């Protein structure tokens, strides 16, 4: 199909934060985003792109290490793509689709 | 050794204790398989049973669930029956097809360990004791404190200062005298965890920090028992059943452990405890209650078959958030990890050795970045004589909610989170605030204070950095109050609330 018109349309997705991570993103749990459907190199937009995008554009807190360590989501954060562990979906390589829901949850330890 | 011919390799070196455990496990498995066969038979025994009067649900039920509550049981484990008063006590749950007499006997035979008798462990223990779990082990090394009582519902104000294990035993004993309670009045460590867990069939992790959560999970893997994991903070809770089944069966792979899901611990600075972040009682309570339910599902043969069906896709992970709509969300986690340290090395070695859990998780050290001469003792601040000019203005950097609960008179509130995010703006507003309050004499002196004396040091450092950039900040910063409001209470004002 026509890839040019596809990238022009953009890629609407929903990103949610929970377990305290929302505090790093303007204390807002749900964000509706429109990403380009291709990255700068012409590859389909994937999870690696999204994580970088969130750090560069959506994070309101300066403490990047509360979300990202070594270029990936820090230990103790679960990433769920449409309610399934991203490890079941290909992690960084997962190519985002229209209306995907991506949930970042910090594990809790209190009791 | 001729009589041992045919004994699989892995059993040859097992200790007596381990052999007993294996026997128990296999007996349980056999019981399950018999139940399964029994349940399957009517559905597969020909068209007759399918066709009989589908409109009469009562009839269909009796056919698909044959004799589960009475005659069908002949294996030795089920020849015991209950005391007269137990039929009455457990009647309302026993008449449930999910329980029945065989289920009640399974609960009575079960041994469940609850690690941590706090906000999760309290409701879990109460429901499990009430349901008639035959043996409940209670692990905690702490004492009951007044600040526990809004959520730790089995402890009472009369028991303040008592070992939590004893306070829990008192409550549970008054609730149900038919069950056995075993006290383990200590904190679990890599030295005692495995031997403690090995005496039980299921363990509930009701602890409150990452190091103990890895410890309980690793020990559960070695002891080969399922782990019910719950956690909560502020308005949110999480629930998961791990290491279930603990050993692969013909139809099901071994379940993931805590380490399979989270191989690396979170960085210490990202951890918030209930003491720092706060917790609502019903939030942690609902997770504790659900932990009791998951435990019963593991122990009740009839329910387990249903549970197995729903977990075939992956491991369910339940998220609860009091202020979200809907409040519950279930997501699917990965299965066991092939190279998991616990499921391979530790399980094979059958020991935690002296694994350093605190080192693994890292310790968040108390902040100590200011030189001693920039730190003022509370009593030194209090004794500043009025003749030597006004005392420095106290800048309280706790969050606004905490400041509104209680604060020192005439102190002002500039939360550390606002300083961290935008120091220029935060200190500008501090400037205005102080001038507005009538401290016209500029430059005046300021001194930072917080709850424990950590954030106040960070605030001092950030203020000095900002002062270099902004000549408008004409304050003389005298440093911070060492030990914060906690030390203030100890040295100056014993009436200052300890929240
Ligand atoms: Zn039976
Ligand atoms: Zn594992």
From TrEMBL, chain A:
Cross-link Glycyl lysine isopeptide (Gly-Lys) (interchain with K-? in acceptor proteins): residue positions: 111
Name of the protein: Ubiquitin-related modifier 1
Subcellular location(s) of the protein: Cytoplasm
1-thioglycine PTM positions: 111
Main location: cytoplasm
Function (record text): Acts as a sulfur carrier required for 2-thiolation of mcm(5)S(2)U at tRNA wobble positions of cytosolic tRNA(Lys), tRNA(Glu) and tRNA(Gln). Serves as sulfur donor in tRNA 2-thiolation reaction by being thiocarboxylated (-COSH) at its C-terminus by the MOCS3 homolog UBA4. The sulfur is then transferred to tRNA to form 2-thiolation of mcm(5)S(2)U. Prior mcm(5) tRNA modification by the elongator complex is required for 2-thiolation. Also acts as a ubiquitin-like protein (UBL) that is covalently conjugated via an isopeptide bond to lysine residues of target proteins such as AHP1.
GO cellular component, one term: cytosol
UniProtKB/TrEMBL annotation, chain B:
Record: residues binding Zn(2+): 257, 260, 340, 343
Record-annotated Rhodanese domain positions: 388-497
Domain of life: Eukaryota
UniProt pathway: tRNA modification; 5-methoxycarbonylmethyl-2-thiouridine-tRNA biosynthesis; Cofactor biosynthesis; molybdopterin biosynthesis
Keyword Transmembrane: no
Cofactor note as given: Binds 1 zinc ion per subunit.
This protein's GO CC annotations: cytosol
Similarity annotation: In the N-terminal section; belongs to the HesA/MoeB/ThiF family. UBA4 subfamily.
HAMAP family to which the protein is assigned, alphabetical: MOCS3_Uba4
Name of the protein this chain belongs to: Adenylyltransferase and sulfurtransferase uba4
Organism: Cladonia borealis
């Amino acid at each position: 199909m026509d890839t040019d018109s596809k990238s022009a349309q953009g890629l609407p997705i929903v990103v949610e934060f929970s377990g305290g991570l929302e505090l790093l993103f303007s204390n807002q749990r749900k964000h509706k985003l429109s990403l380009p459907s291709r990255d700068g190199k012409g590859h389909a937009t994937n999870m690696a792109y999204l994580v970088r995008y969130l750090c560069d554009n959506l994070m309101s807190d300066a403490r990047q290490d509360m979300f990202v360590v070594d270029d990936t989501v820090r230990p103790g954060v679960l990433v769920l793509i449409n309610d399934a562990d991203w490890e079941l979906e290909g992690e960084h390589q997962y190519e985002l689709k229209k209306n995907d829901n991506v949930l970042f949850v910090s594990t809790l330890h209190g009791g | 050794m001729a009589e041992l011919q045919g004994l699989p390799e892995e059993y040859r070196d097992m200790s007596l204790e381990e052999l007993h455990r294996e026997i128990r496990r296999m007996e349980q498995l056999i019981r399950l398989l018999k139940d399964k066969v029994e349940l399957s038979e009517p559905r597969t025994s020909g068209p007759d049973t399918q066709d009989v009067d589908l409109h009469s649900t009562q009839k269909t039920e009796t056919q698909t669930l044959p004799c589960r509550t009475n005659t069908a049981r002949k294996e030795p484990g089920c020849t015991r029956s209950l005391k007269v008063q137990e039929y009455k006590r457990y009647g309302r749950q026993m008449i449930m097809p999910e329980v029945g007499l065989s289920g009640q006997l399974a609960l009575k035979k079960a041994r469940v360990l609850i690690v941590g008798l706090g906000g999760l462990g309290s409701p879990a223990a109460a429901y499990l004791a009430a349901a008639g779990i035959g043996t409940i082990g209670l692990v905690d090394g702490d004492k009951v404190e007044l600040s526990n009582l809004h959520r730790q519902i089995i402890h009472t104000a009369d028991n303040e200062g008592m070992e939590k294990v004893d306070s829990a035993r008192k409550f549970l004993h008054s609730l149900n005298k038919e069950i056995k309670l075993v006290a383990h009045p200590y904190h679990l460590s890599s030295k005692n965890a495995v031997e403690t867990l090995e005496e039980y069939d299921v363990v509930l992790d009701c602890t409150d920090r990452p190091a103990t959560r890895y410890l309980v999970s690793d020990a559960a893997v070695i002891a080969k028992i399922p782990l019910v994991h719950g956690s909560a903070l502020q308005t949110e809770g999480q629930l998961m059943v791990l290491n279930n089944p603990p050993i692969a069966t013909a139809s099901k792979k071994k379940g993931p452990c805590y380490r399979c899901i989270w191989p690396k611990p979170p960085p210490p600075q990202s951890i918030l405890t209930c003491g720092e972040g706060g917790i609502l009682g019903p939030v942690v309570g609902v997770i504790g209650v659900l932990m009791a339910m998951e435990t019963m599902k593991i122990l009740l043969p009839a329910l387990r078959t249903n549970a197995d069906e729903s977990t075939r896709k992956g491991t369910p992970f339940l998220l609860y958030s009091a202020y979200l709509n809907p409040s519950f969300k279930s997501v699917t986690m990965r299965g066991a990890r092939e190279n998991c340290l616990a499921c391979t090395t530790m399980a094979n070695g059958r020991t935690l050795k002296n694994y350093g859990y605190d080192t693994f998780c890292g310790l968040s050290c108390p902040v100590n970045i200011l030189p001693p001469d920039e730190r003022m003792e509370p009593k030194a601040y209090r004794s500043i004589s009025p003749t030597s000019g006004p005392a420095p203005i106290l800048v309280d950097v706790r969050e606004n909610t905490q400041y509104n609960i209680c604060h020192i008179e005439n102190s002002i509130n500039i939360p550390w989170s606002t300083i961290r995010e935008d120091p220029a703006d935060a200190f500008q507003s501090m400037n205005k605030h102080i001038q507005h309050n009538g401290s016209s004499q500029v430059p005046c002196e300021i001194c930072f204070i917080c709850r424990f004396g950590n954030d106040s040091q960070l605030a001092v450092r950030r203020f000095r950095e900002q002062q270099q950039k902004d000549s408008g900040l004409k304050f003389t910063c005298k440093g911070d109050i060492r030990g914060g409001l906690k030390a203030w209470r100890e040295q100056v004002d014993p009436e200052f609330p300890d929240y």
